[in-house]
What we know:
Two copies of one chain form a homodimer. Chain A is mainly alpha-helical.
Amino acid sequence: MRDPLSRTFAALADPTRRAILARLSEGEANVSELAEPFLDEMTLPAITKHLKVLEGAGLVSKGRKAQWRPCQFNGEPLREAVDWMEQHRIAWEDQLDRLGAYLKSKHKGARHGRKK
Amino acid sequence: MRDPLSRTFAALADPTRRAILARLSEGEANVSELAEPFLDEMTLPAITKHLKVLEGAGLVSKGRKAQWRPCQFNGEPLREAVDWMEQHRIAWEDQLDRLGAYLKSKHKGARHGRKK
DNA sequence: CCTATATTACACCTTTCGGTTAATTAATAA
DNA sequence: TTATTAATTAACCGAAAGGTGTAATATAGG
């Protein structure tokens, strides 16, 4: 996943990472706070790795305060990702609209014995 | 990746698959048509696999017309994905707004020797 | 039936992912 | 200095991802 968009989507393609982001979108937290809800499912190094993926995607930035690493959410990369999705979702809807209009016109044409 | 959201994001986390979706958002196409732009980078079975990932995420549906498999885009799964991103992006912006307001009030307080 | 075209299935390989345990660094506190 | 807390690093593992080449499967048309 070299390109930024792929990195963003890949980072989001994991429920643990999404949960971490959801937590961070409420406000900053350090690593052990982020890890706490998952410590019955996985260990701390696993969380460290997840955070590194999120950092790599630019979705999280980590500071330092004594021995703690306060993490912050960064929603900026989401914009490009949302844009991509919306652009193609809309193209798809337009496509459906055109299909619908075509079918409708064809039906009318059949009923009236002509097109338009 | 068992949950639908993870499947959607994972499917989008690959530039080849995104290109296929982009192509399909313009209108239906069969497998070899979709493969054509990539045949110098990879083989047909690779495309078949990518299509299967996209199908698994519900982003593409495949029909059959003689020996061709016309593929269609389905933008429905994108809705949930966009919703997730927007929800947290907005929470993040609110967070920034609150921080900005706090800093501003603190500055005023410092200038006037009191808070509020 | 035979053949050509479109697509998939199968077996395999290499790299990445998501996790582990154990050791290590960094900073505070006693 | 020693101990404690927070977090990372390193080495390793199994499974999944993303490819390949080769065979198999539809389907249409002589």
